[in-house]
Here is the input.
Amino acid sequence: MIPSLKGDAEYMIELLKNIIEMIPDAVMVADKNGNCIMVNQAYKNLSGLSEEDVIGKPANTDIAEEDSVLIKSIREGKEFFNLLRRVGPDKREVLCSAKPIYIKGELVGSVGVMHDISEIKRMSRELEHKNMMLRTLESKYTLEDILGNSEKILKAKEEAKACARVSATVLLVGESGTGKELFAHAIHNMSPRANGPFVRVNCAAINKELLESELFGYEGGAFTGSLRQGKKGYFEQADCGTLFLDEISEFSLSAQAKLLRVLQEQEIMRIGSTVPKKVDVRVIAATNRNLEEEVRRGNFRQDLYYRLNVVKITIPPLRERKEDIPLLCSNIIKRYNQKYGRGINSISKRALEILMAYDWPGNVRELENVISRAIINMDISEKEIRPEHLPELVDNHGAFKQIGDGDIVISLKGKTWNQVKREFEKEVLKFFLKHKKSKTEIARQLGITRRSLYKKLKLLEENQIIE
Ligand SMILES: Nc1ncnc2c1ncn2[C@@H]1O[C@H](COP(=O)(O)OP(=O)(O)OP(=O)(O)O)[C@@H](O)[C@H]1O
Ligand SMILES: [Mg+2]
Here is the structure.
């Protein structure tokens, strides 16, 4: 301490007050009983509370949920960093850090700093949304980009061409990586709506609670956290164009009911509104699940399924059109040559035989991965892809092996998130069935109910855990 100030308590307090006023983050100081003795202006701005509301009151007066970090640090005598709390009447989200204050070894109180993150969160949500819009509002591919001369792919392309002319809803069905997104783009580009917007919604990537407001939009003030001026949903954004609903099986039952209504009436109702709005949108839906099965299990509405199923295009898996592999390979190599300035001009007979013998559970996407990994393994002077460049190709059934007791290894090669999840679940169940005696015991160890264990086992029996 500066010697000349020693003993001048009033002076010190004024100095301290001025210092904490200058701190841009919200600051609160509490005495050893956990009562608030000091706050700064930033605190009052953040919490929306006045000095009268908090001074002399317990330091948790401002906390909407959970306990006070200041009181916690006094009680436990230690520092805490960045604990999430909500403060004030508006329940602003803050990160709160607090530290006990010791003077001459005696605990006299604590000091806390709060950092408002609601604004950062709002901005990052907005940014995410803008990025998504940038990606979704353009349609890149045409029918020529869908490669293959096999009978099955040609049939699918013919069907796409035929349905493009009309505005009927289309359902694209195919395993992961077969080209559903490519087909959706191509149909849009061949349709009379080609100059309108193409909006892609990945239903699996959007939080289930948010999906409805994202799709149908909302009126201003429809719910807490909503924008004051309201928001257009994807249906309105796709007006006069195409809305591509990818992974439609991820729709909740309530969103399904609303979607059915929109398809039937061609009008939407924003959340919080009572006035329907006309929209002119062609819907293309895609799924890699068996929707009939989902209907049977009660996860998908039958009426919506019939409605979507009017025009259904089944995209064949790569293993059913292996004759297209050479053409796909040469196209992939050409693209990689351009992208990375390489001069690869062929693929050896033996390497091609290996690729033709494999079943490609991850379809064209997996083939792209394998070729790109081979190219990475090649010396810059090499011109031909040979077997030694190829990564090891392990099919679905050989992909797992158990190492230690209770350890499971899964190959991630060319698999989607959902495939990995399901395959993992299957292995876990198989492991427990082999090692445990009773179902009750398994359920207890996994921390799930017996009912949900039975459900999972039933799926395993029917072999539907794996797509
Ligand atoms: N017939 C094809 N010709 C050329 N490239 C293709 C073909 N089919 C798929 N691809 C390519 O394979 C990759 C996966 O395709 P796409 O994203 O359309 O698959 P998807 O069926 O939507 O898969 P998922 O169900 O995992 O979303 C893309 O890079 C795409 O360009
Ligand atoms: Mg896709």
About this structure: The pocket of adenosine-5'-triphosphate (ligand 1) is lined by residues 146-148, 174, 176-182, 288, 364-365, 368, 416 (CB under 6 Å). The chain has 18 helices and 16 strands. The first strand starts at residue 26 and ends at 31.
